[in-house]
Amino acid sequence: MEEFVQHLINGISLGSIYGLVAIGYTMVYGILKLINFAHGDVYMMSTFFGFYFARWLGFAYAPSVIGALIVLFLAMAACALLGFTIERFAYRPLRKMPRLNLLITAIGVSLLLENGGQILFGADPKFFPELIARAELLHIGNISISNFQVIVIVVSLSFMALLQYIIFHTKTGKAMQAVSFHHENASLMGIDIDRIISFTFVLGSALAAAAGILVGLAYPRIDPLMGVLFGLKAFVAAVLGGIGSVPGAIVGALIMGLSEEMVVGYFSSTYRDALAFFLLIIILLVKPTGLFGKTTSEKV
Amino acid sequence: MKHFKLISYTLFAFIFIFSFTHCTKKEDKNIIKIGEYGSLTGSEATFGTSTHNGIMLAMDAFNNQGGLNGKKLKVITVDDQGKPEEAASAVTKLITSDKVVALLGEVASSRSLAGAPIAQRYKIPMVTPSSTNPKVTQVGDYIFRTCFIDPFQGQVMANFATRTLKAKKVAVLRDVKSDYSVGLAEFFTKTFEGNGGKVVADLSYTAGDIDFKAQLTAIRSKNVDTIFVPGYYTEVGLIARQAKELGVKVPLLGGDGWDSERLTEIAGTALDNSFFSNHYTSESQDPRVLEFVEKYKKVYGSVPDGLAAMGYDAALVLIDALKRAPNQTPKEIRDALAETKNFQAVTGVISFNNNRDAEKAAVVLEVKNKQFKFVETVNP
Description:
The structure holds two protein chains of two kinds.
Chain A: H1 2-32, H2 39-56, H3 65-91, H4 99-121, E1 126-127, E2 136-140, E3 143-146, H5 147-169, H6 171-181, H7 183-188, H8 193-218, E4 221-222, H9 226-241, H10 246-266, H11 272-286
Helix pairs in contact in A: 1-5, 1-8, 1-9, 1-10, 2-3, 2-4, 2-8, 2-9, 3-8, 5-6, 5-8, 6-8, 9-10, 9-11, 10-11
Chain B: H1 2-30, E1 31-38, H2 45-64, E2 72-79, H3 84-96, E3 102-104, H4 109-122, E4 126-128, E5 143-145, H5 150-164, E6 169-175, H6 179-194, E7 198-205, H7 213-220, E8 226-228, H8 233-245, E9 252-254, H9 261-267, E10 274-278, H10 287-300, H11 306-324, H12 330-338, E11 343-345, E12 348-350, E13 362-368, E14 371-378
């Protein structure tokens, strides 16, 4: 029982990181109907931004909560800028083109970031500085919860709550919803589509950056290719929950994190990644739109 | 403008042709080419760079003393990024396009196993400094190694667990993608169970994973005395860290794949009171080791790890064989290597047995305060 509860805690903390990245996939898809393959690499870039900020500002050598927060916000700002740039220069010029062109461009941007990262940062893994001292918060019987796990869950949940608030309770959020329903109609209502799409990328990239810094804290091994598999899994989580739906992405990510943890804990680590894709196939067979996805009928 | 373009192209073409003729003229006569392949980047980057440093230390010293009858040794190094498929193409390139007469490499057994069949096919002798999986030299009669093999290393750590740690129940956590890790885990299990102990959990991970909490949680519930983690330093560091986060307090045990300063950089103090087997210790008072450590420090400014010492030794053994091969053809070098007997090297006395493996002593090191401290020497 204790073992099961521990697996549960580990799984939720892993899943909530997937969630932050999955939201970025789902938001961009909801608005542009584009699978932004570069998103996983934006997440990777954030860990390197964090790595260098922490070194330059000297937080890498003296762990403190303030330092960690500053690094977190700087990395989020840098990634927001990166997301904005990618949209402005790679995707916007192609928006009127067939969707396949956009998709291939997304793959191109992803390759550019991965290989550019290898040239810039080197291909060998770096070790993310310990920004916060590790400590055990709670110990009941055999169940232990570390401060990292709590930080990961709390930070992810608060960003997700903030996002829900932005989407449903602000003007920009309502504009985002409108754009996701219909581009032309939204622009007829006086919504600046370009601005809203830029904002979506900025928001998604900042959340991916938050995920990157949390991963850097909890699993301090970063390398320029770390975004590939992680991004893929977050994408699967988004599809699982129903791509285009933010709550769906979060639920999908938690399912992914938990199932991975349980498979490794009770069966074998060999099936760790296989299970994620197996789940995806099953869910798509039973409910092709994903758990929370809406079926939209094609109108003539 | 057009003229300018034409002129610059012609100039480039000339430079290109000249540089080629220049190269070929200079090379053939007084240079013996030796290929080296290693992981200079990637997850096991320190393995490749340390080994390379060791090799170059030996080669440069030899060349500075005049080389081999006036001929200089030239090492051509190719980075395989820590990937077996890259190792295979590196070896092919070194043999077919650089035309090396002998090969040095790799550290990791999986990558040596990718390169060795190619060396064997082209009949180019290959000396691996520190691949410990028995399968490596079984590839063929052109493959040699200057280190001990995993059946011995596994036995050393199993006996250490039984005798020194008085362990009865252990868990094994192996990297399923690595021939080295899988082999070492099996040899450890065999000896440990032979000693009357019990392996109560045998779990696995894959190189590149970052989350090991699931495996460690499963291990924790079994109340083991120690965990054997025969992996490479990047993952071992993360495993140690997460074990501590989960409140696992037993010592970890491992093999020579732990030997890197990066290990404690990742793990922090989480690995204190853990042990691993290695080829040598820089704390040794042997005059050969003292001399080597001093020379290495002078050139590279750091204390050499085991892989640097192994690279140095492999290069020395190869140089020794080159001296005994009259025309330095691959076949002669192979035969000279096979005859190596009682060669005094930094990490011990090297003689090749019938399997072309060196039989050498192993040392057990303890991780203490981010340093590797010598515990004991175990003879084969």
